[in-house]
Amino acid sequence: MSKSRKKKGKWKPAIEKAKLFLKSKKKESFLLFFLSLFMILCLSIVYAQKMHDRQNALNKSSDSLLKTSGSVTEKGKWTNTLHTDRKEDEFLNPRPFIDRYNLVDIRQDGNPLDSVGGRIYQELMERESADLAKIYDSTGDTPEHTAKLLGLKRSTILGRYNPQASGQSPDQKNSWAIPYFKNIHYRYYNGDGKEIQESSNVKDILAMASVYTYQHNYLDEERFRAIVNELYTKSHSYSLSIGPVYYDQGCIHKDAKEEMLAEEADNTAAPVGGETKASEESWAESASEKSSETATDSKANQNTNATKENKQAQESKQAQESKQTQETKSNQENSQRSSAGEGGESNSESKSMTEQSEKSSENKENSASQNAELSASNLPKETTGTKAEQKANSIQEQKNLPKNYCPGHVDLTIKITVIGFDDENGLRNIQLDSIKDLEEQDQKPGSRWHGWDDYTIAAVKRLKEQDWFKDYGLSISSVEKKSPLTEEEISAYMKDLPEDLSEERKALIHFALSSVGKVPYFYGGKAGVKGLEGNHFGATISSSDYKGRNRKGLDCSGFVQWAYWSSVDRSLDFASSTQELIGKGQKIKRSELKAGDLIIQPSGESHVVVFIKWTKEGKMLAVHENGTAGNISVDEVQANYPYYRSILP
């Protein structure tokens, strides 16, 4: 008997039993059949989906780089070779998802900043910090120099004689330039011209470049960097404008505490002044290339100034009735009536407006001249003798001025435009030279790039809304690095200090220099204890701010309070703001600054620095908690701020 017949005979009883079962159990057999059929169908669908995904993965990797001469891309050359033109694909790096930050997975070691994407991220963050530092430092310039840069006439920043300002003479009205900006107002605008809160578009730019290169060649580092830098340059600009001269109810005789209270009242009630002229520029351009523009709002400002002057005239008259002759009172009333029309605006675009501005300037000068003539016997005169005697005479002469005497103030407004991705006239509307060579290729049927459609826009939005510290290990705090000073560097600074400087001041400066690079900037940050230990500076906190800062540190006023507290055991009553610091110590002039003194700007982008010395170029060397650099640093600053305070002997 053959083997086949044996096998057939072996299975015959089983087959017969199956037939008998099917005849007797028709319902059960019917259900079993369809269940088997359903399982086969499901397995087929799963298998087909896997094959489809595999094919898509192969198709999407069509822009993987060719294996050429041992390098991924030829340096300086942008490539976008089609898959069909390649002989062999090499999968050097896994392709990311479209909503994952590109190039961040290509790294040298475990540090995310050592990746290609991390380095580009760091470069852009440092560029933004440097540009902001440049803008903020320009606020420390004098009104006179700023007006000159903007092409404004000197009369724009002339007030009345100020006995507390150096270089002013009661007989030379052209010397009565207002020495500093009273208030500095920062205004941020988006690409649509709408005012917004302080903003950064770094993540917008990186997310946009990431999505674009993902759809082209996701490993093209040079292209990625070129797009990022061009977008940044074309999406940032700023302009400066000087408001009209205005007067308050008297500021010559206020002590530190009175100035602090008056400053707080002004900040809560005073509106931003009108603009006279502005210059707009790319953040990368120099101040000498500024082009002026004009903003008009003169009528409202003139009315406001007139109201202030009328009040001042009435109060000054009452204060002088018992002390001055009828002739002096009459002269003062005339001068104050004349000065009530001060504060007009200049306009370089219209001839008629220019004439009005010149007339307004003449009124200012006449008014100021009358004030000088009025108080010729009361204003400080040239004195001789020792410095102490001159200071005593100056104080005595200032007391002879009307109690509500004000030499005038002027404000600075800085308009910063930052274009975001979500703006109607946003980043995607910027024409880029760095991608022009791809336009023809993008029109081909095989291209994956179809412009900024719903798919790519949604990918950018998902990407920029991610927590980059959590997902990629990237944060501004990890970028903001300042190297601590060496003992040799600290010693060099200390040797430059005057030999007769008090030990307390030396201790303060040494402690501040020793803290450089060790305490990151954090808005609102205050110290809990003296010294570095126990404050947990640099520790990651639970949430980050809008810029992605997530390390605990100090702000500028917190650093000053902590430095005084730690070095010389002076807590400054635990002052928590620049407003509170202007009420500490004694008021001094800029020319009287010594190492350890404070220079304070309490309004706008408020700031405070600790003076170290004057450089050979006449700039101020100071140590401060630098918000734009992200840590304590030593910098040359202009810091022409309104408040100078001496706290230590």
The strand order across the widest sheet is: 2-1-6-3-4-5
Number of strands: 12
Radius of gyration: 36 Å
* Strand-pairing-aware structural class: alpha+beta
Main pleated sheet: 6 strands, mixed
Tally of helical runs: 19
Round the mean pLDDT to the nearest integer and report it.
Answer: 74
Regions with pLDDT < 50 over 5+ consecutive residues? 58-92, 270-282, 284-396
Amount of helix: 40-55%
Form type? elongated
Distance between the termini: 123 Å
Our estimate of the beta-strand percent is 5-15%
Summarize the structure.
With 649 residues, the protein is α+β, with helices and mostly antiparallel strands. It is 41% helix and 10% strand. Strands 2-1-6-3-4-5 form a 6-stranded mixed beta sheet.
Topology:
Blueprint: H1 3-24, H2 26-60, H3 116-138, H4 143-149, E1 184-189, E2 195-196, H5 202-214, H6 221-234, E3 236-242, H7 256-269, E4 278-282, E5 291-293, H8 298-320, H9 326-339, H10 351-374, H11 387-399, E6 412-418, H12 439-442, H13 454-464, H14 468-472, H15 476-479, H16 487-495, H17 503-514, H18 556-568, H19 578-581, E7 586-587, E8 598-601, E9 607-614, E10 620-626, E11 631-637, E12 643-646
Parallel strand pairs: 1-6
Antiparallel strand pairs: 1-2, 3-4, 3-6, 4-5, 7-12, 8-9, 8-12, 9-10, 10-11
Helix pairs in contact: 3-6, 5-6, 5-13, 8-9, 9-10, 17-18
